[in-house]
Amino acid sequence: MINAYAAFEAKGELKPYQYDPGELADDQVELDVLACGICHSDLSIIDNEWGISHYPVVAGHEVVGKISQIGKNVKHLNVGDTVGLGWHSGYCNSCKQCHNGEHNLCQTAQPTIVGHYGGFADKVRAAANSVVVIPEGMDPIKAGPLFCGGITVFNPLVQYDIKPTDKVAVIGIGGLGHLALKFLNAWGCEVTAFTSSDAKREEALRLGAHHTLNSRDEDEIASAAGRFDLIISTVNVKLDWNLYLSTLAPKGRLHFVGATLEPLDINLFSMLLSQRTVSASPVGSPAVIADMLEFARLHNIEPQVETFAFEQINDAIKHLREGNAHYRVVLTR
Length: 333
Known about the structure:
The structure is a single chain. This protein has two domains: 176 residues, Quinone Oxidoreductase, Chain A, domain 1, CATH 3.90.180; 130 residues, NAD(P)-binding Rossmann-like Domain (Rossmann fold), CATH 3.40.50.720. The chain is built from eleven helices and 17 strands. The protein is globular, with a radius of gyration of 20 Å.
């Protein structure tokens, strides 16, 4: 039996929940969970914000654990390996995207926390090719948030061939944004943070930004017209996107990784005349996750975390829900 914490209704308190996972599939691994990050996406699924939740919900998709069982067809992993599990816990392995190594774009991929039980538990199961070995020496407590927050901001750097000479800005210096600043600085880019307060400005500079712009000052934003090759938006709120588009250089890209639910109000001519692009992306494939972990190890990149015991899970969720996280919340044993 697996002992977990589950939500039984939208916005409900998490309660102890036990389930029988059955026989381990030949292509699966079972992990003893060491730590699990709590992401805003977990809240969205717990609250059924996206209309895709199946109750009871056992959330948790920033999992780090030790492999305790392996299926008979699993050859590349061993019992005792420390691995991480992110948004996907399985893929079809037969579509064009899977064959091309872009498993994260598989249209029938199995989300770890939708129709599947996630890492708010003592154990979790997943397809062996969806877990990634944690590099030796990496802190397992801090590795978990890299499997969602980290890969979400790292993936665009790979997908769009971002160069060390590029000028890149980040909107939203929080759970995603603080990692974006760290990765972009290590990537070699000239990094600007859009911030809303003096305290955030100083912290953004410590995290890796070279410059800051006041996101509440339209004139200050307008002063950056034509500057950026890439802007990464990590926020889930409506902003004046045309104002931000104006700060892109010709062929610049406004890229969304924050799940804003409101339609984008965008002036086509701002894009057309300078051949600008608006795009979005999800998490990365297991191969890109592995590259991200190695890059993070080489450059000593870690998320800034606050830890709670698993038994404090409702306190931890409240802390995140109220906007008090600085910057990622991790459950530990």
